[in-house]
Amino acid sequence: MGFYMSMTTAPASGLAQAREVATYYKWLHRWVRYTRIVRRYSGFDSHTVHRLMTDPATGENGPFVVHRLMLEGVPLPPSPRVLDAGCGYGGTAFDLQPKIGGEWLGITLSPVQQARAAAEAARRELDTKIRFEIASYDAPIARQFDLVIAIESLVHSINPAATVANLAKAIVPGGHFVLVDDMPIEDFPDALAEDLADAKRFWRCPVMPSERGWRMAFNAAGLDIARSLDLSPHIYHRPIEEMNALIARDTRRRKWLGLTGMRRIPEANIGGLLLERLAVQGVMQYRVLVGRKHA
């Protein structure tokens, strides 16, 4: 089963998808707000929703390890202009701006994420260097950037090729696009197709291209592939038995919640657990893809 061929499909309108993604993150925000045990992993303490992974060079474990790994070998000007496309609570900018400098713009569809990120930038006295706006990465972008980052965000796109093309227009010649996301293997087994379909549905991911699909989108947008790396080996995964039990628990919770907005919370849990199980089964990769715009 190949997944690159679905790059141009659009199962829902862009406006409807944007509304659903914003609502999805509004409910997740409410859940994280009142669930202290997951705060450092899911936004309130770390201001990120990145995967926890172990740095192969230093042994450090946490949600910011992905930042070093994704930028390794990427040349940047002394004070880069950076766009974080799908910035969440702003954790990437808060971690990297003090390290690499520059002026940052984070965009998100979620008003609750934007408000919290902007308040944190002001608290850190970084609001002159880091700004956050409510905007879609599919909308025209007036400014130009040396670096565009998209971590676990473009997977929500209904047309990944068009999204990449739109973001690439905002990159200066010689600038870079860094994408980090879940990508199914190219020859995905039919036996696990239902799990993949459910993971995509519960995480509001209409397409979820393979690496080959993303490469095609990069090339079509004038981005030469500079680097591709599977980060999956650096992520800790729970035993499958534990994942199965949690999926069964949240499936029951989703049924109890019916059509209420709160059903999105167990759906998010199920989607994440299914992706984790697929990764353990060797059919899902968490990959960084770096593209350089033609000079």
Describe the structure.
The chain has ten helices and nine strands. By secondary structure, the protein is of the alpha/beta class. It has one domain (4-188, 206-235, 285-293): Vaccinia Virus protein VP39 (Rossmann fold, 3-Layer(aba) Sandwich). α6 packs across α8, α7 (193-202) packs antiparallel against α10 (264-280) and α9 (240-257) packs antiparallel against α10. The longest helix is centred in the N-terminal third of the chain and has 21 residues, at 14-34. The chain is globular. It starts with 13 loop residues before the first helix and ends with a strand.
Features:
20% strand, Rossmann fold, disordered N terminus, two-stranded antiparallel sheet, alpha/beta, 295 residues, seven-stranded mixed β-sheet
Distance from first to last alpha carbon: 36 Å
Counting structural domains, the number is: 1
H/E element string? HHEEHEHEHEEHEHHEHHE
Shape: globular
Radius of gyration: 18 Å
In short:
By secondary structure, the chain is an alpha/beta fold. It has 10 helices and 9 strands. Helices cover 40% and strands 20% of the residues.
Spell out the blueprint of helices and strands.
Blueprint: H1 14-34, H2 39-42, E1 53-54, E2 61-62, H3 65-71, E3 81-85, H4 91-100, E4 103-108, H5 111-123, E5 130-134, E6 145-151, H6 160-168, E7 171-184, H7 193-202, H8 211-220, E8 223-230, H9 240-257, H10 264-280, E9 284-293
Parallel strand pairs: 3-4, 3-6, 4-5, 6-7
Antiparallel strand pairs: 1-2, 7-9, 8-9
Helix pairs in contact: 6-8, 7-10, 9-10
